[in-house]
Amino acid sequence: MASTVLGNHDLRITQGTLDMWMRAEKGFASTAGFLGYRCAAQVHLEGLREDYTAVLVLTGHAVGQLDGSCLELNRRAVLAAGPQQEFAICLSGDCVVRVVRLPLWLVRARALALLGRDAVGLLTFGAVPAFVADNNAPVTRHVARYLGHQNAQRLDRFVEERLVDWLLRQLPHQYTDALSAVPSAEKSRAIVDFVKLLMDTNPLGKDSMESYAVQAGVTYPELIRAFQWANGQFPHMYLRGVRLDMVHGVLQGARAGEMDVATVARKHGFRNGTEFRSWYRKRFGEWPADTLRRTGKD
């Protein structure tokens, strides 16, 4: 049953009685799931595999074994293995892990996008974990949400790509040095993609622009330059556009007398009514009151 998440593997119970819990999900290209055995167990991935495997420890304690090296894996530790790497993990009875299997073509495609050239052969990850540590770590919080939360949404292609990008940046492999020397244009595109994902996923959050920069692993000036190169605008302008689109959608779906423009604007982070109306008209070609009047006749 666990093969749905892990692929071909050997399971050995080292202490206690097996009482497996699993929830699997299928993304655009990936297979993912949550897994716990409620006993001490060792999982060994068999032979040559067709996928890359990433494991995140959600609760409890585990010991990872990667190409003969053993390392402690506590909560929020992430370890990945390539298709030809020897990989096993020993789980405590209270350990629950998140497993994501990523196809060869997806990892190769993202390596190409980040490096600007094709990666020769399979990527081999080093026996050093990354950590989904806290909001101040150089990691996208909303990618971490897809990794770690039991109410995670289904992985779509965009999120899968961002997840692979994060793994390639955070975990050591034979292209780590080359990745640090990626041309600035490629870096800018990757930074903007990360921050756009943050803003699109939680547009009404209280994050500052400086906080977005920290989460993307860059300085605030670097974030500004990346957005200007990729989008021709400042990052706060992109977020403003996302919020304006939300207001527009609410006003279009309103019934007569159900709401007023000022209330909707405030709920979406717009405190200055004059500026809000000006931005709205520039984006949609009409005043917000006109949208509400036109669509709220029923």
Structure characterization notes:
- This protein is α+β, with helices and mostly antiparallel strands.
- The protein is built from 12 helices and 11 strands.
- The strands form 2 sheets. A 6-stranded antiparallel sheet has the order 2-3-10-5-8-11.
- β6 and β7 form a beta hairpin.
- The chain is elongated, with a radius of gyration of 23 Å.
- The N and C termini lie far apart (about 55 Å).
- About 0% of the residues have low confidence.
Quick overview of this protein structure:
The protein is an alpha+beta fold and 298 residues long. It is 42% helix and 21% strand. A hairpin with a 2-residue loop joins strand 6 (62-66) and strand 7 (69-73).
List keywords for this structure.
298 residues, alpha+beta, 12 helices, elongated
